[in-house]
Structures are given as C-alpha cells and as structure tokens.
Amino acid sequence: MHLSSRVKGVSESITMQLNDKAAALAEEGRMVYNLSAGQLPVKPPQDFIDKLHQQLNFLKSYQYAPVAGVGELRKKILTHHARERRLGPAGEGLDVLLSNGSKQSIYIALGALIDPGDEVILLAPYWVSYPEMVKFWGGIPLTVKSNVFDAYGPSLEDIGRLITPRTRAIIINSPNNPAGVHYPATWMRGLADLVKQHPDLWLLSDEVYAELAYFDPQPSWFYQEDAALLERTLVFGAISKCLAATGLRLGWTIAPPSVVQAMGRIQGQATSGASALIQRALVEYDFAGIPPFLEPVKAHLRRASDLVRAKLREADLHNVWYQSHSAFYFMLDFSRTPVFARFQSEDGLDKSKEICQEILERHGVLLVPGGDFGLPNSARMSLTMEEVPFQEALSRVVKYLQDR
After folding, report:
1. Range of the domain at 210
2. Are residues 269 and 377 in the same domain?
3. Which of 154, 308, 340, 376 is within CB 3.0–4.6 Å of 123 for a Cys-Cys bond?
4. Can you give the pLDDT at residue 16?
C-alpha cells in the first residue's frame, strides 16, 4: 500500500517509545518516576471550570464556532496581549486566529508563509515539532546551536550568518521548551537590530510559556524594542500552560490581518473552528485570575530549580548546572558528566536515546532525549513533579551521571 513521501519523512517520537517502556515497567511492579511531563499536575482555576459548566447549558456551545474564532474572544485576547506587552496603539492593527492548540497554530502559520525550498531558522534547543512542521510544508530547517555555558542562549552572530535570500522565517521560543530559560532583554534588542536589516523575514514568536517565569528579570520580546516589527511578526499563545489545560486544545495566533486571513483559509479546509464550548467559557473568564493561579506553580518551580542546583553541586557536577528560570524544564548535558565516557565513540553519534533508556531501565526515571530538541547527548527533565518524589528521582539521575 502506497504512503506519501511526506508522511514517510516524519520522524517517529522517541518520547512515545520510552513512555511505552515506562508503562511496561510499571505493569511489572517497578517504581517509575516520570520526568517527561510537559503539563501541570493540577486542574485549571476553579473559576474557569465554573465557566465551562455554565456554558454547557447553551446550544451555541455545541455548534460550530466561526473558523477564525468567536469574535468577542479574539478581541479579548488581542486587548490582553497588547496590555501585557505594553504595545499601546501598535497592537490595534493586528488580528487573531483561534485554533486547536498552539501546535496547530504554528503548523498552519508555516503553511501560509513558506514555499518548498524556503529556509526557516530554528534556535536549538528547540521544540521537537518545529523541524518536522517545516519539512512537512517543504521547507528546510536550519539550526543555530547553543550550549550550557551560555545558558542555552543562541548567538545572534550565528543567526546572522545563516540568513540568506532563501530564508523565510525565524522561530523564537522564549520562554523556551526545553531549556527552561527566556532570552534576556539585551538579546531581544540585538535580534530586533539584526532582523531590521532583513525586511523580508517573518518572525514567529512562540510565547506559550510567557506567564511562567519564576525568577527575575521577567521575559521581554523583540517587537517591544521596535513596534514596526509587528508588521511581520506572528505571536503564538495558548491556555495549555497558563491555565493547566493542555487537553482542552485552544491556542491562537496574533498577526497582521492578511496572515490571519491566509491561515484561516487553511484552517477552514482542515479542522474548521476550535471548540465552541472552550471559547465561550474563555469569553466569560477573567484573565486577571491567571497570575494568582500560577503563583503557587511558580513557587514550586523555583524550589525544584534550586534543588537541581543543590544536587548537582553536591555531586560535583558544576559544569552541568545553569540557571533555569521559566517554563517547566531543565536540560541535562550528558557530555559534561562522568557517565558519558562509556558512550563516547568514534562515530560521534548522538547517544541521548541510549542513555535515557538506560536511566529508565536501571533507575526507573523517565527523561526525554535531547537529540530531537536539537541538543545531542542531553535530556529534558520536567520540574513539575511533587517535591518528595522529585527529590528521589533527581537523586537517582545524579547518581547515574556520576557512574563511570
């Protein structure tokens, strides 16, 4: 049976393979600590849940929503974003498209912007789906690398060297999944200066973790340095992280109206509008409830980040540590640890998957291999687990890293 060349080129998720392995170990009676989670282990705010309940009584909650989204919610999101980012009048000329999660938002945006052969610059470590999305639309992903010594901040000079007449877009993910950092204001200022030299570039700003910075200074963004950049910027957001609602699948794109209209044409032929129930509940929900809801979440993440630092220093793994300060994650660089000596070989291939599989089988801790994030010989560790089991899981991982 024939399958398209597009689907044959999509990489299989190693995360799903390891999750299956973890489930099998658990069924055997093994204790498994899952540090792969990209979601909060709590329910959304009670007020939002109440709004969902209320909307169950209305017929419109069960009917098609407009393809671009409920107009009142689109305006509300745009107003909220302009206020939070201090955009002033610059935010008035933008539009919003609501989709089934920010993943769909980014996927449709790339479909609207790039042609086969166009280049898209990714900043590693990057979210695993970016390169697959680019390739699915016929684009060519190009990677700018970073490392633990720079706290995974990509070099602006390296970005500049990659830009050619074929470069169509740069994807910026700050706060960053998987590194758990947001790029500093000086970096954002430098990016703004750089891209102003290339007026045909689109800038895709994935801001799904924007509200989840737990150490100062807080995040800032390049278009705050020059509002004119909003004319070629797409901002992506969602309720998945800030409202602990990954399963409700509601995300959005804030962009110039022409881009929103183009994306809407694709969405209209693919999925139509996002969930009417979720949209109408969000119309009624007060976004001012998000910061107080996230305060205990951010306090937990601060404690987990401090614990990682303490455990790594105690184990004399100083060169693995960096300061995470946003999102849910910390990247472990295996290549800077004693255990990596057992995996080094002349082929120079990424050993992330083998190391993560060994950690799971020997110590019952599930991590996400870093190779698919564009960071070979590493792993993403989630900080969302409850404190006591997280301490035990972290101790097991650190013990493993010390093993020669």
Report:
1. 46-287
2. no
3. 154
4. 67
CATH of the domain at 379: 3.90.1150.10
Residues in the chain predicted with pLDDT less than 50, given as ranges, are none
Give the number of residues written for the chain: 404
Residue 370 DSSP symbol = S
Show Cβ contacts of residue 366 under 8 Å, excluding neighbours closer than 6 positions. Answer: 18, 19, 22, 32, 33, 34, 35, 36, 356, 360
Considering the domain architecture, whether residues 328 and 221 belong to the same structural domain is answered as no
Based on the domain organization, do 35 and 89 belong to the same domain? Answer: no
Q: Kind and range of the H or E element at 33?
A: strand 33-34
* 25: alpha, beta or left? (left if phi > 0; alpha if psi -120 to 50): alpha
Decide if 168 contacts 120 (C-beta within 8 A).
yes
Per-residue tokens: 110: 């790339």
Phi and psi torsions of 104, nearest 5°? -65, -35
Q: Which of 287, 312, 337 is the last residue of a domain?
A: 287
Task: Record the tokens describing residue 220, joined without a space.
Answer: 């800032």
Do 359 and 34 contact (CB within 8 A), yes or no? no
Burial (0-12, 13-18, 19+ Cβ within 10 Å), 198: middle
Query: What string of DSSP letters covers 258-302?
Result: HHHHHHHHHHHHHT-SPPHHHHHHHHHS-GGGHHHHHHHHHHHHH
Q: Phi then psi for 208, rounded to 5 degrees? A: -60, -30
